[in-house]
């Protein structure tokens, strides 16, 4: 496989942030009440991840070693503020639903984790691709969890009713369902692909 | 009375971990043993109350006076990161015994979303300074309660036999789900 494609594939599958690295659990559980919300949160995080990875990779030689963590956090927080202001202006309803989790992208361990583990060691193009891969992997996982919860909880998918006769299992839209659904999804992933660790 | 309602709501009804989904990373990561769970809860409580106090004052006396509220996210996270560093240095010098107990957890706290989450929440809910302090204390108490309960369950869980695919995180998440269900029972407590 082409090495550039491999970086994207690595983020999407081999090192999927949610199912393999088990990072960024708060938004994963908190925003996936429906497939739509999961997708939106995933894309917002992916945007921040791409931009911060690219900028950090560009600045890596300018930032003194001792203050690299605060410097990275400022760069990440800048892009989070950009996302925050854009969502507030163009998609106010979505901004309202995702609420606190948008500013909290700053403390999402995936973003800082990739900055530290990848962007600070690779060139811009590779870092950008890594951002895209990990971002899409995160989006994929959130959408999947959102789909499962929405389907079980209200018999619909992206707002379209698929199972009109369905007895809504409201539990899956509420807090406990998030934990249980994610636990089962990871168990399924482990059963299919037990090679990890 | 109002303060009591804020306290009970934050600890039981809207538990920060089990119903707000903040601080899941330490909740899953540091809950394998009871003693580390206690240490982490202590460190979180300490930082949360201080961080909420400082960010509250900054928001009302600096950001709002200068009309630069849009810098909230950047300013808050920097203040929290600096505060954690400062606490670490001060504890190391002045209270080494406390530093021994909390030291390893302190660097992890910067990226603990409960701290930034609470700092932003008290601004969004337009609480007064006293309410914010009660809220911060109660939230850290709720975090500790959930973490310590969960660590107790996981210590037992480690001794039991599980299907191969369920070992580790999956079973922990499902247990957390059941614990969250138990906390849902409190939802009618405060009207």
What report would you give on this structure?
The complex is a heterodimer of chains A (197) and B (191). Helix content of chain A is 68%, strand content 2%. By secondary structure, chain A is mainly α. Chain A has a two-stranded antiparallel ribbon. In chain A, a hairpin with a 2-residue loop joins β1 (156-157) and β2. In chain A, α1 (3-14) packs parallel to α7 and α4 crosses α6 (109-119). In chain B, α1 (2-13) packs parallel to α8 (129-157), α3 packs parallel to α7 and α3 (34-63) packs antiparallel against α8. The longest helix of chain B has 30 residues, at 34-63. At the A-B interface, α2, α4 and α8 of A face α2, α4, α7 and α9 of B.
Query: Largest interface, with Cβ-Cβ < 8 Å?
Result: A-B, 42 and 45 residues
List the quaternary state of the chains: heterodimer
Tell me what portion of residues of chain A adopts beta-strand conformation: under 5%
* Largest pleated sheet of chain B: none
Largest sheet of chain A: 2 strands, antiparallel
Number of β-strand runs of chain A: 2
What is the strand tally of chain B? 0
Question: Number of helix segments of chain B?
Answer: 9
Furnish the topology, listing elements before pairings.
The complex is a heterodimer of chains A (197) and B (191).
Chain A: H1 3-14, H2 25-30, H3 35-59, H4 68-90, H5 92-98, H6 109-119, H7 124-154, E1 156-157, E2 160-161, H8 175-192
Antiparallel strand pairs in A: 1-2
Helix pairs in contact in A: 1-7, 3-4, 3-6, 3-7, 4-5, 4-6, 6-7
Chain B: H1 2-13, H2 24-29, H3 34-63, H4 72-94, H5 96-102, H6 106-109, H7 113-124, H8 129-157, H9 169-184
Helix pairs in contact in B: 1-8, 3-4, 3-7, 3-8, 4-5, 4-7, 7-8, 8-9
């Amino acid at each position: 496989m082409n090495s550039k494609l491999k970086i994207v594939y690595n983020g999407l599958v081999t090192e999927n942030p949610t199912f393999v690295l088990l990072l960024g659990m708060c938004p994963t559980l908190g925003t996936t009440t429906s497939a739509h919300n999961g997708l939106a949160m995933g894309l917002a995080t992916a945007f921040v991840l791409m931009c911060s990875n690219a900028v950090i990779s560009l600045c890596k030689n300018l930032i003194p070693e001792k203050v690299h963590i605060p410097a990275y956090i400022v760069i990440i927080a800048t892009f989070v503020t950009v996302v925050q202001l854009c969502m507030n202006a163009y998609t106010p309803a979505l901004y309202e639903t995702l609420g606190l989790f948008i500013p909290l992208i700053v403390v999402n361990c995936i973003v800082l984790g990739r900055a530290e583990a990848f962007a600070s060691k690779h060139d811009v193009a590779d870092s950008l691709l890594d951002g895209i891969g990990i971002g899409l992997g995160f989006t994929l996982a959130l959408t999947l969890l959102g789909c499962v919860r929405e389907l079980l909880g209200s018999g619909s998918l992206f707002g379209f009713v698929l199972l009109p006769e369905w007895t809504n299992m409201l539990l899956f839209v509420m807090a406990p369902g998030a934990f249980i659904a994610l636990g089962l999804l990871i168990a399924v992933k482990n059963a299919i692909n037990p090679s990890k660790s | 009375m109002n303060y009591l309602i804020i306290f009970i709501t934050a600890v039981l009804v809207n538990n920060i971990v089990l119903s707000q989904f903040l601080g899941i990373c330490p909740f899953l990561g540091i809950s394998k043993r009871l003693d580390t769970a206690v240490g982490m809860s202590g460190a979180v409580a300490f930082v949360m109350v201080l961080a909420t106090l400082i960010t509250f004052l900054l928001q009302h006396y600096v950001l709002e006076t200068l009309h630069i509220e849009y810098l909230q996210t950047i300013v808050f996270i920097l203040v929290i990161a600096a505060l954690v560093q400062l606490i670490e240095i001060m504890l190391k010098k002045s209270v080494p015994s406390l530093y021994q107990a909390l030291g390893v957890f302190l660097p992890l706290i910067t990226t603990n979303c409960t701290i930034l989450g609470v700092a932003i929440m008290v601004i969004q809910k337009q609480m007064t300074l006293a309410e914010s302090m009660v809220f911060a204390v109660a939230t850290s108490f709720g975090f500790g309660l959930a973490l310590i309960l969960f660590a107790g369950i996981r210590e037992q869980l480690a001794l039991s036999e599980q299907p191969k695919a369920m070992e580790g995180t999956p079973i922990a998440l499902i247990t957390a789900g059941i614990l969250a269900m138990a906390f849902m029972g409190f939802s009618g407590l405060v009207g």
